Recover the amino acids of this structure.
């Protein structure tokens, strides 16, 4: 939770003392009246089980504690669903794959929207950030565009720092046809990450009280520093995304037509009818979403290689048999590397890249298994429980074991738990990640190439316990606590062959 002074949270960042006192008094009276009315309504319903919290304010302590919410103990205490009410806003924590599918997929007509974010949605992004666009015509337009481009056939042409720069280079190439980043200080990356940090801060529960009391958005701008900041950020970020898009547009006008997401969006303008600012934000925010999650996934995979050397050895054996040591692996090899493909699926299942994915929100009252789910309920999918369901993944769910995705003949299972991906990480229903095939393809070729050339070991004398519970939360994504890693070439020709392969793309 972002810690902020109360006047700043509410929006009274400046103004005279008398003005502030009057506004705060009005705020208190409206808060009390609104809370009583909203909480009284919730208690007369048969809500799912969960902690009831304190009178008037509800469970404001737990709702801002993601570690407590995500703990498997909550499922033991409350079952497959846990309902929390804080300041009149209801939140449903889903701790079962069955419930997630029943609600978010089978009833997707009323569970496909996003929470109404006022600060980050209405003001900072004007509801143009793909991940939080409310369900409606704009989202349908955006998804039609992304479905055509991020298809199954799409292939993107300390260790955490290398993964970070590499992941962003991939996303910049896919989205804008930009060259690989030479440094983490590249101005392009600095701008994007500045936007992402602000976006992630604003989306966190408890950052702005206006998310719980929407009438606060009508406070005059001169009393609401957060309104002035977020409006200025929208202008600043729009100019950035339009500049990136404009570079591709200029290239197309000069006859330079190289494949990228931006180029395809520009060329399909007459088909989809997006405005200039919609195009800029669509491409820009898919870039912002993909860079951090890909980097995090590779960091968790490397951690698994240190923790499970036998898994690494089996992957080395498969690569030697299928690819050999005369050349690096290519995308054409991936279908013939079932253990590597299973390792990618297991990485996405086992690693807590996003302990809670972006929440859904219900757009109508609903009844499910005898309990009432009010309209506007925020629905969070608890990935730390869903991806560790023993009924789906077996008793060794805590272990990193790619063989769970292989059948008795060593082939990758077509489905697991009724899902093609075999895990829940890409989300559900109409909000499933549109870039999931790009993500799997990127991580597949990265893992195959790294393991073909290198062996990863934990240095002698390294301190600290390795495990998925030791993590650092960064917005909606989680990264491992920094760890030491020793990289050893598997054979003497590996570096020269990699450089030779790289020269083909220069």
């Amino acid at each position: 939770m972002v810690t902020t002074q109360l006047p700043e949270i509410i929006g009274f960042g400046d103004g005279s003392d008398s003005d502030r006192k009057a506004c705060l008094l009005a705020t208190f009276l409206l808060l009390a009246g609104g809370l009583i009315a909203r909480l009284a309504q919730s208690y007369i319903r048969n809500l799912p089980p969960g902690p009831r919290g304190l009178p008037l304010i509800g469970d404001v302590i737990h709702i801002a504690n993601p570690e407590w919410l995500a703990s498997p103990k909550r499922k033991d205490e409350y079952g497959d669903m846990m309902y929390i009410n804080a300041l009149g806003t209801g939140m449903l924590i889903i701790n079962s794959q069955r419930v997630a599918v029943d609600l978010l997929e089978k009833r997707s007509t009323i569970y496909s929207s996003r929470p109404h974010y006022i600060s980050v949605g209405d003001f900072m992004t004007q509801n143009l950030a793909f991940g939080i666009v409310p369900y409606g015509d704009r989202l349908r337009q955006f998804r039609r565009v992304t479905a055509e481009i991020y298809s199954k056939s799409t292939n993107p042409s300390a260790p955490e720092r290398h993964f970070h720069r590499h992941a962003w280079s991939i996303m910049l190439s896919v989205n804008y046809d930009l060259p690989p980043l030479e440094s983490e200080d590249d101005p392009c990356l600095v701008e994007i990450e500045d936007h992402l940090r602000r976006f992630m801060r604003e989306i966190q529960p408890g950052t702005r009280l206006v998310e719980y009391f929407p009438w606060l958005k009508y406070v005059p701008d001169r009393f609401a520093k957060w309104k002035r900041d977020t409006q200025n950020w929208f202008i600043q970020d729009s100019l950035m995304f339009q500049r990136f898009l404009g570079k591709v547009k200029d290239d197309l006008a000069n006859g330079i037509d190289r494949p990228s997401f931006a180029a395809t969006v520009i060329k399909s303008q007459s088909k989809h009818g997006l405005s200039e600012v919609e195009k800029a934000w669509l491409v820009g925010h898919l870039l912002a979403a993909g860079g951090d999650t890909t980097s995090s996934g590779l960091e968790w995979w490397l951690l698994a290689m240190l923790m499970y050397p036998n898994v690494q050895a089996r992957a080395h054996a498969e690569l030697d048999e299928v690819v050999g040591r005369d050349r690096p692996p290519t995308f054409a090899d991936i279908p013939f590397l079932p253990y590597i493909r299973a390792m990618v699926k297991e990485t996405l299942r086992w690693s807590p890249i996003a302990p809670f994915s972006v929440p859904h929100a219900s757009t109508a009252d609903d009844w499910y298994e005898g309990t009432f789910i009010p309209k506007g309920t925020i629905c969070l999918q608890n990935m730390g429980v869903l991806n560790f369901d023993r009924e789906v993944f077996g008793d060794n769910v805590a272990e990193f074991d790619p063989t769970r995705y292989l059948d008795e003949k060593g082939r990758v299972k077509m489905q697991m738990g009724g899902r093609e991906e075999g895990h829940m990480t890409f989300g559900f229903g109409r909000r499933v990640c549109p870039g999931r095939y790009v993500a799997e393809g990127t991580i597949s070729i990265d893992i195959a190439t790294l393991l073909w050339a290198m062996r990863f070991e934990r240095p002698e004398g390294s301190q600290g316990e390795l495990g998925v519970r030791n993590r650092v939360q960064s917005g909606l994504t989680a990264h491992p606590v920094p760890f030491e890693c020793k990289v050893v070439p598997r054979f003497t020709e590996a570096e020269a062959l990699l450089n030779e392969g790289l020269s083909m793309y220069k």
Observations:
- DSSP finds 20 helices and ten strands in the chain.
- The first strand starts at residue 81 and ends at 86.
- Residues 1-10, 152-157 have pLDDT under 50 and may be disordered.
